[in-house]
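Hi R.,

Here's the chain you asked about this morning:
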Amino acid sequence: MVGVSSKKAAIKVGVLALQGAFARHQKVFHELSVDAIEVRTPANLEKVDALVMPGGESTTMSQLLESSQLFEPISRRLKEGLPVFGTCAGMILLSRTILDGRADQLSFDAINIDVQRNAYGRQIDSFEADIKIDSLDQPFHAVFIRAPRIVSLGSGVTPLAYCGDDVVLARQENVLVASFHPELADDVRLHELFLKGV
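And here is the predicted structure, written out as tokens:
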């Protein structure tokens, strides 16, 4: 396992558990000796110091955020500075604009990027690549599954990694987003990078 460090301070990370790959993120945090709980209700959200929005199906997650009455509480906490890490569908939901989203699909407008869903193709077009990430001394093995593409970056957004010409990891203040699934790599360094900002 790459990047395992000493026990972190008493931080409680929430992992949005409405749909998608939330269990794998929880597993990574547990390997880092960090308490990670599933967030399914506003009451769960109130207990956490940071939030991960995992991959999954972004339109379904958007609908579930409304039906679970989580959209407004998450939106409020993001504005208050809650650290959040959005991966794949999570990145789509945190974006300013979803260029090819459904008319009723919501996003949090928490990071100044425009995204295109499934930009690299269908499930069969999924791929893996070693990418160089600023602040990490070794490449990170990134898994792209029906991955979204960052089409444009606005002011205040810092690109942290590229795959070819595409930005695939970016940060703006309390928001970190990735086009890929870091929880599927045998490497905890991106989760550690996120925790440094918590």
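One quick note: Residues 4-8 have pLDDT under 50 and may be disordered.

Cheers,
M.
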